[in-house]
Amino acid sequence: MSGHSKYEPKTGFERWLDVRLPIVRMAYDTAIDFPTPKNLNYWWTFGGILAVCLVIQIVTGVVLAMHYVANAGLAFNSVEHIMRDVNHGWMIRYIHANGASMFFLAVYVHIARGLYYGSYKAPREILWLLGCVIYLLMMATAFMGYVLPWGQMSYYGAVVITNLFSAFDNVIPGVGTAITTWLWGGFAVDNATLNRFFSLHYLLPFMIAGVVGLHIWALHVPGNNNPVGVDVKSKEDTVPFHPYYTVKDGFAILVFLLLFSWFVFFAPEALGHADNQVMANPLATPSHIVPEWYFLPFYAILRAVPDKLFGVLGMFGAIAMLFALPWLDTSKVRSMRYRPTARWFFFLFIAATLGLGWCGGKLPDDVVIPIGRDAVTGDPTGFTVVMLSRVLAVYYFAYFIAVLPLLGLFEKTLPVPDTISTPVLPKGGAAMLSGATASPEKKG
Amino acid sequence: MSSSILGRSGFHGLRALAVAALALGVAALGTGVAQAKTNAKEPQEVSFSFEGPFGRFDQAELQRGFKVYAEVCSACHSMNLLSYRDLAQPGGPFWDPKHPNISPAESPYAKAIAAQYKVPDIDPDTGDVIQRPATAADRFKAPFANEAAARAANGGALPPDLSVIARAREGGPAYIYSLLLGYEEAPAGMTVPDGKYYNPYMAGDMSSYWKGAKDKVPEGGFIAMARQLVDDRVQFDDKTPSTAANEAHAVATFLAWAADPHQVERKQTGIAVMLFLLVFTLLTYLSYRQIWRNVSH
């Protein structure tokens, strides 16, 4: 789709620049003239929203780093100094802290959109893999960022997550301990750990920005997928990116910023944890260590497995599934609009992931469905959170390694329209097309 | 025809955003429920003037709350993150809106309050440790020289620093209010350790101190602080009745301000931001309808 450039330098300076560094041409081709399917719905606006989130995080983060002190004795108070004494420091810090949550909210919607509309399928596998790399980098960045305020949850979150690597002691004794010591820069989470986390927390966002560049490049070669999932066939199917999608994305970004601002200005600590307002104390473990909401599904998978090593593997495996997805889904039809069975498995997958998130925020032994009472303590017994986590985790993995590979072979799909423009022309769209001569086999 | 399709797809998209927002809410609820997993009683329903997007601090109550802190709490609890000048910053207890150009450190109120305290320092001429009158720039005088001294004077317990306490406890000011007034006789069957007091709002596990049925362990925990706020403990200067409830409400308000001194400024900024974004969003939506009016999609 990245066809011939239609850029024509209009001023003398642009002509001069164009033969030396065609940067204006590149911007014109990617952000102005880029032919974009005309049927993209609001789920497609989250790419732009994510770009805004990344810029907000980097700008606020750079300013915070001017005032923050990465030292185990001073970090907590330096954050309070930002909140109290730095001009508008409270605003910059609350934007940055809530911005992480907003970033993950948007990236989850963005990933779910890709899952539903088959955006990972040929020829967009590299685009999808780069997205998975961005997500992985985001998780590392967010985890290390959460450690920096050096509150109780910061500290014990760092302890729990870095200790996961000690599970490798079960494979080769000593290796896991060696890895954790190396990660910590000592024999416990301490000043050395905080300093390297700060260094990496500053580095990784720029790596994210670099991979985002590749992600957009890989997007602009095959062009956008679209809700119908058929390739662009003619100029009729597309509109130039500007003004059509700049204005549509712009509207969605503003709606998103309304939600963002509501959290920043009226509920800035609603997504946080009161324990993190207590300075880290290695001698006082909080009664309940929970990660931030965006890690809860993975935390639930970790705790669902009785064996530590396999729990860790399960947690990382849950993300590895996303990387393998382009080769696991065997269906030739991209969009689940035309996959009536897969669609229900997809909605179940979303429900299972949200359910895992809910489980991750509960104590493992909390009872979900009470059946009896303990004879000694009188506490209710029955179906516990950890049991529910197991059921949901099994479905999470089954969706990738059983449902999608098999369903593609057996599912009876609905007729797929010939072109993007086709479903628009008859009144009512896809459901009315059952008589059309569209066969899914011919469509990529 | 095209416009009806457009309208429908627009509606779908907005609904999708609402669903996404809801999902986030559910996730937040999940963490919230997890945090409440202690055996303490839920804080009382108590209203504060600073609640909600339009809430503001009542300056007279902030002053009363500071008086409660200064006369009662400060005997054991430090507030290491606050300086005397902070009391006179915009929105603070001793902020004087009639003289907005006087910097907080030059405020006569902050200076007068600071002058009542002596803080440790080093004599620059001799190097001796001395006590000098505090200036507005000094941090609140701490009651103990160090943690060991604080523990030694309090039966081994460390009175927590109160600078951010209203943000560092679930329930915030309502929890502080409930805890300060919530002292009760320990239920029969409960053995209260020496130097500890029973309080149903305190988090804790008391099953090993309880002789009754295992499934009837009372709510609450033990706290090393005895009941402090009683009627007439603090005489307010503004004729507000010196009831224990008024004292607790005032000090909870003061601690909420101390933990988040810019919150009124934050909310007022937020209202302007929301109004701006709403207008901008509406204009952008109308532009979107205008630009897409001839595209069937």
List the defining traits of the structure above.
heterodimer; A: 444 residues; mainly alpha; two-stranded antiparallel ribbon; 58% helix; B: 297 residues; Cytochrome Bc1 Complex, Chain D, domain 2; two-stranded antiparallel sheet; globular; disordered N terminus
Would you report the number of β strands of chain B? 4
- Classified by CATH, the class of chain B is Mainly Alpha
**Averaging pLDDT over every residue of chain B, what do you get?**
88
Percent of residues in beta strands of chain B:
5-15%
General description of the model:
The complex is a heterodimer of chains A (444) and B (297). Chain A is mainly alpha-helical. Chain A contains 14 helices and four strands. In chain A, the strands form two sheets. Chain A has a two-stranded antiparallel ribbon. The two termini of chain A are 16 Å apart. Residues 428-444 of chain A have low confidence and may be disordered. Chain B is mainly alpha-helical and 297 residues long. In chain B, 41% of the residues lie in helices and 5% in strands. In chain B, helix 2 packs across helix 7 and helix 6 runs antiparallel to helix 7. The termini of chain B are close together. The interface between A and B is large, with 69 and 61 residues.
